[in-house]
Write a structure and sequence with these properties.
The protein has 407 residues and is an alpha/beta fold. It contains 13 helices and 14 strands.
């Protein structure tokens, strides 16, 4: 009998790599201080317990489980009443309300991303993606052989898209314009006019828009969130959403795809999405059963309190980093992040923002994500969901660190 030989992994697995994990692995060091660790790197609003889901959300799920009414396999695209709840909550254009049949429920927004990319792209095709942007976009594309054409975001314009740059990236293999609004990692929120300008580019090249709106409505004082399909009757769009962030339940894995298609230009895409939904037969059935109550019964007081907390934290964060010589924060407008620029010439002890962040962790037990995680060097990202006192302590440590190394 022949000997066993080692089995080789697939090309898809070999091509799958998360840049955040690669860089964070370089920073797996033990802080050389007695100070309590303060991680400002994890985009999970649940980590400290200061942000909690609405009581209505918890009660809805408890009732569903107690009633044993959603224990079976759901339809692959989701229960009709749950899809209907999404369509009514996020109707899109006032003249062309979203239909429940154009909503597909997914296992979180990350699953929605994977399904949409699979439906739109063949290996060798490309999609226009933001830089900096959420690392999973590239991870999914690389694993499937899809090409990423990255357009720049402009920090001096609160991370608006460089539309002139975007135009230069379109070619015969381009299948869609992709935007993320409000943004992870930038914490930006596009104005209505900027969204209209993006729509003009899509109209010019006859490209659909895919919009990651997982932070729908999570904007701060003075800001207004606008969903892309509310602004156009001609450009087809696909919106990705979910309950992870605004309802503080990322582990429940409930997302969705909403297809806004006035002229049936995406009918084949919709058929493809329905086929792809059969692979895992829909997300968690109990959360689907609770979804109508989650979306319809959550009180305005909850939303107001949630946004007041995040807005206050954003203000504290921005002012704290503004006051540190050598650092330049870009004012956050939404989501739960701020990007902070480092004037590396002022910190000659460090070759890169990765080294800066690594030493900050070693000396001060404060962890931030280097900008290279998002393909933008000389920045770091901060998550400001922690309790106010922890944020203030963390920012004081960063100030002390910068005072030590600044020239």
């Amino acid at each position: 009998m022949s000997e066993w030989a080692a089995f080789k992994s697939s090309a898809a697995s070999k091509n799958t790599s998360n840049p955040i994990r690669k860089i964070v692995d370089q920073m797996l060091i033990k802080p050389e201080t007695d100070k309590a660790p303060i991680p400002l790197s994890i985009g999970d609003p649940c980590t400290d317990g200061n942000l909690l889901p609405p009581q209505e959300t918890t009660d809805s799920v408890v009732n569903i489980i107690k009633n044993n009414s959603y224990n079976g396999y759901p339809p692959s695209a989701g229960y009709e009443q749950a899809r209907e709840a999404v369509a009514k909550k996020f109707p899109g254009h006032s003249k062309h309300a979203l239909e429940a049949g154009k909503v597909i429920l997914t296992s979180g927004a990350s699953h929605a991303l994977q399904m949409v990319f699979d439906a739109f792209l063949e290996p060798g095709d490309n999609i226009l993606l933001p830089n900096p942007g959420f690392s999973l976009y590239k991870t999914i594309c690389d694993s499937k052989g899809f090409e990423c054409n990255f357009y720049n975001l402009l920090p001096e314009k609160n991370w608006e898209c460089d539309l002139d740059h975007m135009r230069t990236l379109v070619n015969s293999k381009t299948r869609a314009v992709f935007i993320n609004n409000p943004s992870n990692p930038c914490g930006s929120n596009f104005s209505k006019q900027h969204l209209l300008d993006i729509i003009k580019v899509a109209e010019e090249f006859k490209l659909p828009i895919i919009s990651d709106e997982i932070y729908d409505g999570v904007v701060f004082e003075g800001e207004v969130f606008t969903s892309i399909p509310t602004l156009t009757e001609t450009v087809p769009s696909v919106v990705l959403g979910g309950i992870a962030k605004q309802y503080v339940v990322p582990g429940w894995r409930m997302g969705w795809i909403a297809v806004h298609d006035r002229h049936n230009l995406l009918s084949e895409i919709m058929t493809g999405l329905m086929a792809l939904s059969t692979i895992i037969l829909g997300p968690n059935s109990a959360i689907q059963g609770a979804l109508p109550d989650i979306l319809n019964k959550t009180t305005p007081e909850y939303y107001d309190g949630f946004l007041k907390t995040l807005s206050g934290n954003a203000d504290i964060t921005y002012k704290a980093f503004q006051a540190i010589d050598g650092l330049t924060p870009v004012k956050p407008q939404g989501a739960m992040y701020v990007m902070v620029g480092i004037d590396m010439k002022r910190f000659p002890s460090f070759e890169s923002e990765i080294d800066f962040s690594k030493e900050l962790l070693r000396e001060q037990a404060v962890m931030v994500l280097p900008g290279s995680c998002f393909m933008i060097p000389n920045y770091f990202r901060v998550v400001f969901t922690k309790p106010e006192e922890k944020l203030i302590e963390a920012y004081a440590r960063v100030a002390e660190f910068c005072e030590k190394y600044r020239k």
